[in-house]
Design a protein that fits this description.
The protein has 553 residues and is mostly helical. It has 22 helices and no strands. The longest helix is centred in the first third of the chain and has 39 residues. The relative contact order is 0.09.
């Protein structure tokens, strides 16, 4: 086996990995929102979550990808760990589909698929057709890579040392260790098993040694989720622990069985094709382990909490739902963004209430709390905007770019409302410091504008979250903003009359006029949110947003 064979092996492996990733990405773009919607709706039952995990992973050809998708749902607050555990068990079974396709020996289709897929990518205009072309092209590249790998390994037949090693390879621990290292390097259990099958095509991988390698490969496949969880949120790390626990327990079950019993000989009764035998054992490993662990999903979650304990206190200067280290499927990311925006809006609303109530009662006792919350709002503003910029640079399904663009404007409006709340607080502090008092009439006018502002904000943001703001609702809210303008102008006129009648002194009167401007601007920004909410409601299809939480508003 010369340098050309080694280069061909590396090139074939590269094609295999790229084809698998490219095909999975095409499937995710073509059907991702629907698959994600299924995962979101139908995972309350661990068994249903398991079946969905099998189905989704069979489509995207990567258990790691499905696990990372679950991590995104965990961060978005859509799925809990028990639900995610069921999906992860199913994902491990679904990943065996690649080995099944290889065992069917349809590599002769590779050139045809590459040609058809490339033509569709180059000449089709519709996005869905391009995604389908990507799937077909990735499929073809995958099998072309497998064919190249298999051909490059033919030279191993001429190396007596390698033949002797394979013939005498009976050490189970060596097999497990080599399997772990192989998968840790390749970063894909499907690709690692594909390498074994490519060797088997040349008669260089007996099933009795391949079984131990597969046990090691499945343990090594845990590296990818752990790498994804580095620096991520605790639930993401726990999902990685569940994924690892599954495969370690599978190895603990099957290594002794293969060592102490003639278990692998059973496959020889069904077929003499070692490629098929390897696929059958891989399926058996995944399926039996999943069926053993499925009744103990909650115990798996408990194990994950032992490794990653729940923290008593979390720093407020962080994302609660967004994980910057994991931009997963677009529909999952959109849900994370919606939940984080909802959190930001809840803080803005709370600050506005405290600032406005403080002005009405000449009370600044909660000034420190308001300012601390404003710092978190500013952190979220910059963080979400940066995340939106990174996210918008990716290939996104239909309607998602419009949702992202609308969120840019929403976050800006929320941040400005927060700033106006701080301005109101500062005016109250000035009044308290100088012992200035508003007249009862002025106080009543401020309260009326404040309450109308708050109602407009609540209805506008609720419509934004739920995508249900009708044209009639929008017109009603526009009229509410007009009413705020009218109340502001009327209050300004009344204020002038009070100054003329000497019912109000000049200095508090100036502060009062400035405060009216702050309230009016808050109404303007709420009105801007109404327009954004109406645009979201007009977007057909798209991604169903999370339901408005009662605790955030």
């Amino acid at each position: 086996m010369g340098i050309n064979n080694i280069l061909s092996l590396c090139g074939g492996l590269g094609l295999f990995l790229f084809g698998m990733k490219y095909m999975g990405a095409g499937l995710e773009l073509a059907a991702g929102p629907k698959l994600n919607s299924l995962l979101e709706k139908l995972t309350r039952n661990p068994v249903m979550g398991f079946l969905l995990g099998v189905f989704v992973t069979a489509c995207v050809q990567s258990s790691s990808a499905t696990t990372i998708m679950c991590m995104g749902f965990l961060n978005a607050g859509i799925m809990d760990l028990v639900q995610a555990a069921g999906v992860i068990l199913g994902a491990n079974v679904g990943t065996t589909m690649t080995s099944v396709l290889i065992a069917l020996d349809i590599s002769w289709l590779a050139p045809v698929c590459i040609f058809i897929g490339a033509m569709m990518q180059m000449f089709c205009k519709k996005k869905l057709q391009k995604y389908i072309g990507q799937i077909i092209l990735g499929f073809g590249i995958l099998f072309q890579g497998l064919h190249t790998m298999s051909a490059s390994m033919s030279g191993l037949k001429d190396i007596p040392a390698f033949q002797q090693f394979i013939a005498n390879a009976t050490n189970p621990f060596l097999g497990v260790l080599v399997g772990i290292l192989l998968c840790a390097v390749i970063q894909s259990s499907s690709a690692a098993v594909g390498v074994l099958q490519a060797l088997a095509m040349q008669g260089l991988m007996p099933i009795h040694f391949a079984a131990f390698l597969i046990c090691g490969i499945n343990v090594g496949s845990s590296v990818t989720p752990f790498l994804s969880a580095i620096g991520a949120k605790n639930n993401t790390k726990r999902a990685a622990v569940i994924y690892c626990t599954y495969n370690v327990i599978g190895a603990i079950i099957f290594v002794p069985i293969c060592m102490l019993t003639p278990f692998v000989n059973i496959y020889q009764l069904f077929t003499t094709n070692t490629v098929v035998q390897i696929s059958m054992f891989h399926i058996t490993f995944k399926l039996v382990t999943a069926l053993v662990l499925l009744p103990f999903v909650r115990q798996l979650v408990d194990i994950s909490y032992r490794f990653i304990p729940k923290k008593v206190h979390e720093n407020a200067y962080r994302f609660t739902y967004i994980d910057p280290k994991q931009i997963s499927a677009p529909s999952v990311t959109i849900r994370q963004l919606y939940k984080e925006a909802e959190r930001m809006a809840g803080m803005v609303r709370q600050n506005y209430i405290l600032a406005a109530e403080g002005m009405l009662n000449n009370d600044v006792s909660r000034a420190e709390e308001i300012r601390e919350r404003e710092n978190v709002i500013n952190f979220l503003n910059h963080g979400i905007i940066d995340y939106l910029i990174e996210f918008s640079g990716r290939s996104l399904p239909s309607h998602t770019p419009q949702l992202v663009g609308n969120m840019f404007h929403l976050i800006g409006d929320l941040e400005r409302i927060g700033d106006h709340a701080i301005n109101i607080l500062e005016k109250t502090e000035k009044c308290v410091q100088k012992e200035l008092i508003y007249s009862e009439e002025a106080r009543q006018e401020l309260q009326e504008i404040y309450e109308t502002d708050l109602l407009l904000f609540d209805r506008a943001f609720s419509g934004y979250l739920c995508h249900n703001l009708t044209e009639q609702d929008a017109l009603e809210l526009y009229r509410m903003e007009d009413a705020i303008d009218d109340m502001t102008h009327k209050s300004e006129n009344n204020h002038i009359e009070r100054l003329r009648a000497k019912q109000c002194s000049t200095e508090p009167g100036i502060i009062f006029a400035e405060a009216l401007h702050e309230y009016e601007r808050i109404g303007d920004h709420s009105n801007s949110i109404v327009r954004i909410a109406r645009k979201n409601a007009q977007i057909s299809g798209g991604i169903r947003p999370p339901v408005l939480s009662t605790d955030a508003m």
